[in-house]
């Protein structure tokens, strides 16, 4: 699983057996470990995490590294966004 980037200082736990149905899990955050990871990795303004469960049933959290494709907007795309109101029904 080389595509997983674990974030230091964050632990994901499944709910205990007596938890109500609406409880889906628990996150534990070690502030000093997470702060060091953020400082060392400089992730930007946001850190997105995926909460997963291994084949052995162990829960874990990994950083979501997905980024949308950058699409250049042409001038015609921008004009279409402003639109021509002549076709509106009201």
Percentage beta strand: 15-25%
Task: Count every beta strand, where a strand is a DSSP E run of 2 or more residues.
Answer: 5
Describe the biggest sheet?
A: 3 strands, antiparallel
Q: Unreliable segments (pLDDT under 50, ≥5 consecutive)?
A: none
Distance between the termini: 55 Å
For the biggest β-sheet, the strand order reads: 1-5-4
Shape: extended
Proportion of residues in helical segments: 10-25%
Based on secondary structure, the structural category is: alpha+beta
**Overall average pLDDT:** 84
Number of H/I helices: 2
In N-to-C order, the SSE pattern is EEEHEEH
What Rg is obtained from the alpha carbons, in whole angstroms?
Answer: 21 Å
């Amino acid at each position: 699983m080389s595509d997983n980037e674990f974030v230091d200082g964050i632990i994901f736990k499944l709910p205990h057996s007596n938890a109500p149905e609406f409880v889906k899990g628990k996150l534990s955050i070690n502030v000093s470990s997470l702060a060091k990871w953020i400082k060392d990795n400089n992730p930007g303004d946001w850190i997105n995490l995926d909460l997963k469960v291994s084949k052995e049933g162990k829960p874990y959290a990994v950083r979501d590294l997905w980024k949308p494709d950058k699409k250049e907007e042409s001038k015609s795309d921008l004009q279409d966004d402003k639109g021509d109101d002549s076709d509106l029904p009201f």
